[in-house]
Structure formats: structure tokens, C-alpha cells
Amino acid sequence: MLIVHWRRLVRRRPALVFGLVLVLAFTLVAVLGPSMTAYGPTKTNPRAILEPPSPQFPFGTDKFGRDILTRVVHATRLDLGIAASVALSAFLVGSLIGSLSGYYGGKVDDLMMRVVDVMFAFPAFILAMAITGVLGDSVGNVVIAIATAYVPYFIRLTRSEMLSVRTRQYADAARSVGNPGWRVILIHLIPNALSPALVQVALVFSWAILDAAGLAFLGLGITPPTAEWGVLVSEGAQRIITGEWWVWAFPGTAIVLAAFAFSLIGDGLRDVLAHEERR
Amino acid sequence: MSEPILRVENLVKHFREGPHTIHAVNGISFEIHPGEAVGLVGESGCGKSTTARCIMQLEKPTAGRILFRGQDLASLTPNGLRSQRRHFQMVFQDAEESLNPRLNVRRTLREPLQLHGLYRGEEQLQQAAERVNLEPEHLDRYRHQLSGGQKQRVGVARAIMTQPPLVVLDEPTSSLDMSLRIHMIAMLRRLQRELDMAYLFISHDLSTVRHLCDRVLVMYLGRIVEMGRTEQVFSAPRHVYTRALLSAIPIPDPSVRRERIVLQGETPSPRWIKPGCGLQDRCPLVADECTRPMPFYALGGGHWAACRLAKPESAERALGVAGSM
Amino acid sequence: MSLPLLRVEDLSLTFATDDGFRHVLDRVTFEVHPHEVLGLVGESGSGKTITSLAVMRLLPHSAQVRQGQIWFDGRELLALPEKDMRRLRGSSLAMIFQSPRSALNPLMRIGDQIARAVRTHQRVRGAAARAAAVDLLRHVGVPDAAVRARAYPHQLSGGMAQRALVAIMLACRPRLLIADEPTTGLDVTIQAQIFGLIKDVQAETSATLLLITHDLGVVSEVCQRVAVMYAGQVMEVAPVAELFARACHPYTERLLGSILRVDRSGDLDTTKALSMAGISYETRGCRFANRCPDVMPVCWERRPRPVQVSAGHEVICHKYGGDES
């Protein structure tokens, strides 16, 4: 869908490339990491409580003697998985609703927009908190909760693109050549209405990481002993005063880096797509 | 004389724009016969593009009928209409905008064949590209990799893929440089002969119409004011608007001196229509009868004009434009 | 022979693009004499608009002048400090752009904009300036001038907006007026009106007019001399009648052969028209070499000096000599 020159990309958009490299690194950790860790994520070790980083425990240990590196690596898989599920499902559901709403218009579209307005009245995190509270604590529920909070973004984006795209001459040309309505929407309109939504996907990835971690930090959604970055940070929070910085610093850095990497990608994508638009 | 391939009967199209009504087309009728090229000319706002869109069923007429090969297009089911579409196609005005930026030329050209079950192989695409003077390498290009003239030719190729007996062309040369224009018109003429097609050629550029069309219809404010064989209308225009229009075009030849008929003011807004001739507020030769509904007067040989100057007893009929073309 | 009011000499200019520098102008040289109308003619990509922007010193940042001089009334413009240039713009040198509505301030009523020009260039203030503005509007043929003066640019039609711009020009009374395709997008009948107006204004104020256009018909009717440009190079300069009767440069001949005339029909002869090959900006010598029917090996190497073919008629083409080496 994107027509891109790779070499030029590195020269012109180093931030985007840096983001991509970071994400790639995280993905590798998420995929290969857990099978390569020396310890289990929940294996306690009473003789190595709250040890600072050392060759044996590169990220140190927590109050149960668990290796933090192992826990961070396992959490990477979980967090990236959550973020991916959230971004993908919000994108699919939201874009479909938005496209149809924009193309057909009328009363259904008006109703949909009012629903979206109501949802936008709440900050995404609050909405996710509320939904998690109702559904209960589990990874699946966290995904549902956060994804629901972001669906309205996609609905609005694709709807407004669809409004602009459906009056283009190539839509007329597609109709006059003999395309039935559904083909005009699916093959001609939607692919051209998705660019802003793609940018949003990257951003939602970033926000979902922060939201999942935030929820877990507050004790919602994912709870200890599951290894999740937010859980790890909340365990480390108690250690801020007592000085065992490694308990919160490593998972905290992971959260920040991951969210940052995705938002770099989102910004970079926006620039690339804006540049393409100008052709 | 064979059956007309297209017959437009009393076509009316009004648009709502907030509290106003835009009277884009106000009752026009004409026919196109197989294999003939008919030009529809007029300035901006005269309703020619709207007429094209109604014929192509991209808009629903407010009143009137469009008959393709004798069949009322409005009476067809959506599926029926779609299958008829392989017989009438359109070349759009904005060549760039009419191409989907995500599809390359190959897919754009293949689509009409696939939709109508006519796809036999890639040779059809290569043949089409050759017909419009495109190179095989252009087939794999995307819209942003094509020049203006190339995009226009892709639009033409797409329209002729199903070899339709009728092609509607909406200002296909307006955005082209002079040198490209003559080649495009020559190509369109050749294609017409090769594929035995009828054209409805819409343009504000009368020079191109003169070199491509057999008959011409002149539109003003949603009505046809004059129609006839190209030669007749251009060399002996009768309606004051046609005369003013022709005399306004600058001739690239300093040795030619003509008298210009100047119309006062500007084209009135299509928000309001008055009975009578649309030119009544601007015409230097306006009379009382021009404010009442104006019929067509026959000038012989299929030449008609809706102007009092076309009446047989009109004394001013003899007045031609000095240095008549 | 009076001194030229404007002399562009050896002007070369590049644009920074994604793939390096494009040499959009190559040693462009021409003169405009006081009180005359010179047409700068070329197709898209010929560099005519960029040349006029260079004269006005309104080039975009990505453009860089590589060499050359622009003499206006004895002063060299490219070396002038910006504040002196600003004083010249509007009062001595003025430009009408292609899109009149974008040249007008959308937030000011047109009467006020004209009044402001009047205040700046004539010793009139307040109510007297506003009255003068309405007078000017009337003078340029705007009906109901007093009412129209209170309109905002978006409420005007294209023709009206262009007239408003001409009114501003009249208030400024520039010595040199550059008009860049002033009737783009306007209907033919309005175009005729606007050119009539521009000619009247030019005669009335004895201004000098540099008219940029691609329309040879307009050149024939409005201009006294013509400079033909192609791909950033000047090909031929001649009085209008001379150019049409005895064009020398192969590009000019072919350009004239590409015209479809509205006052003549007949077979389309594409053999006398320009070929469809693309423009090349990279050739060291003459940039028309890749499309020229009379090309010689030396044409690819270097350009000749201008050769005087007859009174006031210069050609830059190896066919006519001019090669010193």
C-alpha cells in the first residue's frame, strides 16, 4: 500500500527508521526471548532477594528473588501482544464501521456520530478502567477494554476520509465501468481512505502499551504474579524509597522505549503519507 | 438512417443547494446515431457536464428519459444497468483524478474486462495500450508516474476496453498543451474509425470540436440553443450566442480581422430561470418575443436554432459576421 | 530606436529538486520596449512564468539565479536591495497572476483594496479614495460599481475578480505590467472582454505590457512582438505578423503546425505538428534537439548566438548560422 524507496527513507527520515529498528528489537525479544531466559519468570529464589544487577542476574532480582531480566523479557511478549491485539481489533472494527457510515450517510451515520461523540467525552484510560472494572481482570478483558476505548478514533478517521474519497472522480469511473457498489467501496474507496488510519494504528500501539501498563499499575486487568511491565513497575514502586532502583527502572525503561518507538513510527508514517499525498 | 444509439428526451436536472435550486439542465433533447461524433459545446455552467453525468447514470435525471438503443435506462434493474454499461463508457475530465492512485495501469485496464466477463489474457491489455500509443512499460506504472498526456490516454484506453459503441468524452483535451491536443484529436478520430464508435464529445474548446465532430449542439443555461452539422453551425451560425461564442475565440493569424459580437455582462446564475431565451439579458439584438418560450426554427439540412434570427422572415438573417468562417 | 524598458540578459536559473538541480532557465535574453505589448509564448514547462517571477524578484526559495542580469529603466534588478525592490513593485512593476481571486485579499472588500492602492499611489485620502475606487470599478466595466465595491473576493465571479485586479493596476499606474495567463479558467466570452479591457487600459495609460500566454490566438490579437520560449530557452523573437507569416525556428514552425483553428476545418495533419517526445532540460546545446526535424550534430553541443533574419526578427538556431567556432 505504501510505495517507498528504502535508501532514501533512511536518509530522510532517520527518526522513523530508528523507531522501526527499536520495534524490531522488541519484537525479537518478544518472540525469541522467553525461550532463551535462564530462569522461569515466576521462579522464586529465597537466597537472592533484592540483589542489584550482576553477571548472574543482569537486571537484578526482586523481593521474591525472581530474576528481573527474565520477567521483563516475558512481559515484553505479553505487552506487545496486548498492544497488537488492541491496535488491530480497534482498527478493523473502527475502520469498517467508519467506512460504511461515511459512504451511506443518512440517519445511521448521524446516530453513529453521536455515539462516537459520547465515547470521546471520556479519556481513553478512564473508559478502559471502567470497562475492565465491569468485565473483570484478565488479559482478554484488558484487550477488549482498551480496544473499545480506541474504536471511536478509527471510526471518525475513516468516516471523514470516506466522505472525501467517495466524491472523487475515480469513484465515478469505477461505477461507470460497471462496478457494483460493494466493489467500489472495497476496492476503490477503502484503500484510499486508510492512510490516516494507518498512522493512528501506530499511535494506538503506543498508547495501548501505556494504558495496559497503567491499568496493571493500578491493580486492574493484569495482576501479579503475571509478568507485565506495569505489574513490574508497581512492584518496584515500593522500592523507590528504599533504593533498589533496578526493580522499577528496567521495566519502566521498557515501557517508555516501546511507547516512544511506536510513536516515532506513527509520526514518521504521517510524514511519509503526507509526502505521498502531494504527488 | 439507422436507429439512434442514444436518444435524450426532455432531460431536466435540478440540484438542491441549501435553500436554492440550481437549474443545471432545463429540457434538452437530441439523438446520436451509431458511428457519429456529436459535440456538446458551451461555457462553464451551461449544463453540458451534468448532461453527460445523467447519460452515464451517475446522476438521476429530475425529469426526462435517456434511451440507449431504444431502452429507457431508468427502467433497468441495477444489475441490468451494470451489464449494459459495457456498451457505453466515459472518458473523464480530470485524467489524474479519474485514476485510482492505488492501482497501476494494468489493473485499471483489466477491470472493465473482468467485470463483464471479457477477459481473455494480457494481450488484450497490450493491444489496448498500443492503440492509444502507450508503451508496454507504462502498464506497470501508477498514476503518479505518468505524465498528463499519458494519464489522459489511459483514461481513453479504459473507456474502449469493452469496445463500446458509445463513448462520452468530457473535456478530454482541456488540460493538454497545444501540441498534445492535436495528437489526441487525431487519435480519437482514428479510434472512432477503428472501433466503429459513436462519440458524445463535450468541450468548451470549439477548435477541437470542429476537427472531430460531425454534428454539434450548442448549450447555454441548460438549454440547447443551436444544433446542426459542424460545417453549417461553424460557418453560418445563427443564434446570437453561437455567433458571440465563435467571434470571441482569438484566431492565431494576424491577417484575419473579424467583427466581434460582444455580450454584455456575465452568464446569469442558474439559480433562477426565466421563460424565453437564456440570453435575453445580454443579447445586443434582443426583442420582445425573446422573453417568451423560444421554439427551434429550421434552417435546412438538419440545422436548427432557437433564435428569432433563424426565422425565415427575419431580415437580420442575412447579416453575417464579417469575415465569416 | 528607444531604449528598452526591460531587458533580461543571459538569465539562467535552477530549481532544487529531490534529484539535484534542474536548469529551468538557460541564458534567457529578450527586451521589452516602452509602450509595447510583448508576448512571451510557450507551452507548459517553457519557463515563461518563472521568468516573470524573476523580473518581479518573487522567486520561490528553491530557485537560484546562476547568472544573468535584469535591467529595468536603467537599474539592474537582481542586485537591488529588497527594500528598493519593494518600492518598485506595485508602483513601477506590477503583475497580474493566473488566479485573480488568490491575488486579492480574501478578508477585505474589493472597494477597500482598490482604495488602498489609490491612497498609496495617488495623493488622495479617505472618502475621496473610496470614491475613486468606485470610479475605477465602473471604468473597468463592473456593473453596479458602488454596490460591488462592498463585495468580498469570494463573492465575485472569475471575470469580475480579474476586472477588480485591473482596477487596482489602474490605480497603481505601473510602467511595466506583467500579465501571466490572466484569463486562465475564464470562459471564452469573458476572456474576450478581459483582453479588450486590458488593451484599452494599456492604450489609456501608455503602460508597457509583458503578456505571458500559451495561446497563439491571444498573441495574434493583443501583442505587437513575440518571444517564443521552449524548455527554458528563447528560440525566436519577432514582430507578430512576421512570426506568423515567416516563422524560422523549427520549434515555432511546428508549434504553429500544432494549432487547431476554429475558423478552418480539414484533415488533421500531424506531420507538421510537434512530436510527442518529452521535454529534456539536460541537453548542453539546444533543448529542442531531441524533437527537432532539422537537428544537426552541433545542436547537441552548443547553442548559437542570435541571428537577425530580418528587421526585428531574431532566431537562435544553427540552421541560420550564428555559430562562431
Topology:
The complex is a heterotrimer of chains A (about 280), B (about 325) and C (about 325).
Chain A: H1 6-12, H2 14-36, H3 68-104, H4 106-120, H5 124-135, H6 139-165, H7 169-177, H8 181-193, H9 195-217, H10 229-237, H11 246-277
Chain B: E1 6-17, E2 20-32, E3 37-41, H1 48-55, E4 63-68, E5 71-72, H2 78-84, E6 88-91, H3 105-115, H4 122-131, H5 148-160, E7 166-170, H6 178-195, E8 198-203, H7 206-212, E9 215-220, E10 223-229, H8 230-235, H9 240-248, E11 297-298, E12 304-305
Parallel strand pairs in B: 3-8, 3-9, 6-7, 7-8
Antiparallel strand pairs in B: 1-2, 1-4, 4-5, 9-10, 10-12, 11-12
Helix pairs in contact in B: 3-5
Chain C: E1 6-17, E2 20-32, E3 37-41, H1 48-55, E4 63-72, E5 75-76, H2 82-88, E6 93-96, H3 100-103, H4 110-121, H5 126-139, H6 145-148, H7 158-172, E7 176-180, H8 188-205, E8 208-213, H9 216-222, E9 225-230, E10 233-239, H10 240-245, H11 250-257, H12 297-301, E11 307-310, E12 313-315
Helix pairs in contact in C: 4-5, 4-7, 5-7, 7-8
Characterise the protein shown here.
The complex is a heterotrimer of chains A (279), B (325) and C (325). Chain A has helices at 6-12, 14-36, 68-104, 106-120, 124-135, 139-165, 169-177, 181-193, 195-217, 229-237, 246-277. Chain A is mainly alpha-helical and 279 residues long. In chain A, helix 5 crosses helix 6, helix 6 (139-165) packs across helix 8 and helix 9 runs antiparallel to helix 11. Chain B has 9 helices and 12 strands. In chain B, a hairpin with a 5-residue loop joins strand 11 and strand 12 (304-305). In chain B, helix 3 runs parallel beside helix 5. Chain B is globular and about 65 Å long. Chain C is built from 12 helices and 12 strands. In chain C, the strands form 2 sheets. In chain C, strands 6-7-8-3-9-10-12-11 form an 8-stranded mixed sheet, with helices on both faces. Chain C has a 4-stranded antiparallel sheet with strand order 2-1-4-5, covered by helices on one side. In chain C, strand 1 (6-17) and strand 2 (20-32) form a beta hairpin. Chain C is globular, with a radius of gyration of 21 Å. Chain C starts with 5 loop residues before the first strand and ends in a 10-residue tail after the last strand. The mean pLDDT of chain C is 89. Chains in contact: A-B, B-C.
